[in-house]
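Intended use. Records like the one below are meant for learning the mapping from a protein sequence to its folded structure. Do not use them to infer anything beyond what is encoded.
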Amino acid sequence: MDHEDVAVATRGEELLIDGLMRHYDATVVRHEVVDAPPAVVWDALRDLDLAEVGAGAPVARLLMAVRGLPEAVVRRLRGRPAPPPPERLPLVEPERIGWIMLGQRPGRELVVGAVGHFWTPSIRWREDVGADGFAAFDEPGWAAIAWGFTLRPYGEGRTLLTTECRTHATDAAARRGFLRYWRLVGPFAAYIIGLSPKAVKRHAEAAR
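Structure written out for the chain above:
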């Protein structure tokens, strides 16, 4: 497999996620030391299938099912069938789940995001907010999520892979609703977010 060139970050360079969401109400950060060079880890990250990540962990399936239960009840009461589960959810195609590709620095950083109202039984996503308008979005009643991955060389032939998921509410009412929700699901969300770098590590080390 041909690997993309890996650029070296300059000292003090701003992370993409910082430029997109400098202030936030909640964050989850996870690190993995991967026994493979950054170019191999970057390939594994771009091949990451989020459907596979969830399917690979019984606990994750349970947590996702619990989070989706209120919406499933509403759908059942209204007589609407459940949508079939997607076969693949590539990280690099976030629009398939209503998210946005916010930016990439090949070999070093990748950030996806979404704007939604997701702390109520019926989740709503804003499909009219693109990458260009994400950082400045401030319409009341919503929250923005930025989920980034960064790769840094870590010794000889190894990589420090970091993922961070930040959430920012656009007004006080949305912040109160989101933080009540976050107190309940925060530990579960942190667990699920941490599965992705573990999957990247597993695939990168297998391909090394």
